[in-house]
Amino acid sequence: TWKLWGSTEALMAAITDVNPPGTYYVKVCASKSGINSAYAQKSLDMTGWDAPPNDVIGLTATKITSNTTQVKLSWEANTDIDLKGYRVYVNGVLHSNILTDTTYTYTADQSGQYTFAVVAVDNSDNESANQATVTDVITCEPADVTGFTVQQSDAD
């Protein structure tokens, strides 16, 4: 489908609000007194920006009180035009690839100190230059014992 971008009397124009990657087809014509010339059409392959997206800011870690093994990470939304999403690293290892939300809940399987890092990722797979990091200590307590019964034995 074609979308009418606009008209101009200039010999050049900037087309905004595109979301790379993808192929865009541009066609133009000359118009005078309501009569249009034949259209000229060209394709343009958009691969994204060369520059990385802006750094993630405002990263916080909040312990989940109902489950001590969980930490909720939150950060401010990145407004880069070609943002694909976010990656979350835990202790330097990629833990979640391309999140589109600005929150993530991590569940630890053992007690310890955890360093969380979040980066923004654009449509060209560039990561933001600097990681937003936060460190937290997670304690994995044993679960409460439930559902057991007591039986008396017939021992002498």
TrEMBL record:
InterPro entries: FN3_sf, Ig-like_fold. SUPFAM superfamilies: Fibronectin type III (SSF49265). It comes from the Bacteria. This is CAZy families CBM6|GH30|CBM61 protein.
